[in-house]
Amino acid sequence: MIGKKPTGEHLIKITRSKNWDAKRGKFVNIRQNEYDQMVKSFDYWGMLKEQFFGPQKNRFPKPKLPEVIPDLEKFNSIKNLTYIWLGHSTILLRMEGKTILFDPVFSFLVFQ
């Protein structure tokens, strides 16, 4: 139900989630304090220094990551929910006849 408010069984399932806050009427991070502490103690400049000037052996995975060429015809023909992980944080999602690209750089794009 892209772009519609949940109803019926879908709404019931959502409201039973441990991350659902009935008072606010939305999902919440139930471990917000842990996230806040992590962000507070994160050393951004230290991380950048390590990435650019630290030992090169720490920058790449030791074994070569597997590569698979996705079958896009099959992907486009699937009616139910399906996805292709494209790497790192990028996912190509097929849902309700729409294809959605999720990527932290490009935000997300919806294709008809």
Describe the secondary-structure layout.
Blueprint: H1 8-15, E1 20-21, E2 26-27, H2 32-41, H3 44-53, H4 72-77, E3 82-87, E4 90-95, E5 98-103, E6 107-111
Please give a structural write-up.
- The chain has two domains: 1-60, no CATH class; 62-112, no CATH class.
- The mean pLDDT is 85.
- The protein has 112 residues and is α+β, with helices and mostly antiparallel strands.
- A hairpin with a 3-residue loop joins strand 5 (98-103) and strand 6 (107-111).
- A four-stranded antiparallel β-sheet has the order 3-4-5-6, with no helix packed on it. Strands 1-2 form a two-stranded antiparallel sheet.
- It is 30% helix and 24% strand.
- The chain is flat.
In N-to-C order, the SSE pattern is HEEHHHEEEE
Count of all domains:
2
Order of strands in the sheet with most strands: 3-4-5-6
Outline: flat
Distance between the termini: 15 Å
Number of strands: 6
- Cα-atom radius of gyration: 20 Å
Structural class: alpha+beta
Strand content: 15-25%
What percent of residues adopt helix (DSSP H or I)? 25-40%
